Amino acid sequence: MATLRQRYSYMVWMREFELACLEGVATREIHGELHTAIGQEAIGAGMAGFLRADDAMCSTHRNHLHAIAKGVDMRKMLAEIFERESGLCGGFGGHMHLMDSSLKFSATGIVGAGMPVAAGHAYASRLRGSDSVAVAVVGDGAVNTGAFHEAMNIAGVLKLPLVVVVENNEWAISVPFSAASATETIAERAQMWAAQGMRVDGNDVEAVASAFGEAVARARRGEGPTIIEAMCYRFRGHFEGDADTYRTEQEKEDRRSVDPLAITRKKVLDSQLATQAELEAEESSIAREVKKMLGEVRLDPKPSSEMALQHVFVGGE
Ligand SMILES: Cc1ncc(C[n+]2csc(CCOP(=O)(O)OP(=O)(O)O)c2C)c(N)n1
Q1: Does 246 qualify as catalytic in the annotation?
Q2: Structural domain count of the chain
Q3: Ligand 1 centroid – CA 171 distance (Å)
């Protein structure tokens, strides 16, 4: 299991990785929508270190940090996001469709659609007699889809080894969670599917790690599904280019002042796990590493037009 000190490093990697992606939007190297999870790093970093290669993880449109937590190669991820042939999916998928089958990691831009896939992975694990688990990470908007309910229902009926992490950042694009839910929390809905429900402070990396570790252990022991509702706030618009006028400037300013990186950094210093100088050295070293990675990715070729029909027809014809 990762230590608090290691989780802070993960968070710095995650933030720097997404800052590099923002650069690609500004320079128009990245086409289409880009969704970052800047401000939600304590959830990604809290999940790190618990999953094996044979555990599955199904993520969303806001997937970068989940992939990093699952151990997906960041160089290949960045290349995919920058639409390069060296990317995870040969540059065909782009940021919303990251996939690494060797680590059973996948993402989808269809809200809620990762839930039945994760339930399927969990059922496959059961049929194989394995103790591997499946994790679905979704947003608070996804919990109101039919797919979410159907997947939770079958997971409850069959007591599947499924862990659902809901990143409740309080907004589904412009719709506040409070306007879309009859229950105050998502965690309390868990009982409806005979699942365990927990609500944690998603800015507290240790609280997330503790809840996630417990849920994964329960699932491995065959004790059924868990929903972890992690409260957080997305610092940027829904996607790059979102005018984000549905949230007041005051709200955004107040909420961004609670930065999970700053909170974790302070904890690391207060617990004397590192000195200020050590953290500064590490932060600049990670920033340099990510810059170097981006420099390399930029030299990689893009998929050629002759490749456009690859993966479209059986046999590649
Ligand atoms: C089935 C479906 N309906 C609508 C959309 C359009 N859409 C994309 S993201 C999004 C909001 C998702 O909100 P949430 O699940 O809270 O995740 P967040 O973006 O906050 O991380 C919507 C409605 C979609 N992609 N798929």
Answers
A1: yes
A2: 1
A3: 10
Cα–Cα distance for residue pair 127/121, rounded to 1 Å: 10
Contacts for 17-24 with beta carbons within 8 Å, 24 or more apart? 17/64, 17/68, 17/74, 17/77, 17/78, 17/290, 18/64, 18/65, 19/290, 20/78, 20/290, 20/291, 20/293, 20/294, 21/64, 21/78, 21/81, 21/95, 22/240, 23/294, 24/81, 24/82
Write the CATH number for 243.
Answer: 3.40.50.970
The alpha carbon of 236 and the centre of ligand 1 are apart by a number of angstroms equal to 15
> Is 316 part of a structural domain of the chain?
no
Residue 123 sits at the vertex; the CA angle it makes with 121 and 129, to the nearest 5 degrees, is 105
Q: Which atom of ligand 1 is nearest to the CA of 147?
A: 1
pTM score of the predicted model: 0.97
Q: Which of 34, 97, 111, 149 to mutate to test the pocket of ligand 1 (most atoms within 8 A of CB)?
A: 111
| Ligand 1 close to Cβ of residue 62 (< 6 A) | yes
Instruction: Please report whether residue 91 resides in a domain.
Output: yes
Q: With respect to residue 309, please indicate whether it lies within any of the assigned structural domains.
A: no
308 lies in some domain = no
Is the pLDDT confidence value at 316 over 70? no
- For the ranges 34-38, 106-110, 213-217, 311-315, which has the lowest average pLDDT? 311-315
pLDDT at residue 288 greater than cutoff 70: yes
State which residues form the domain around 272.
Answer: 4-300
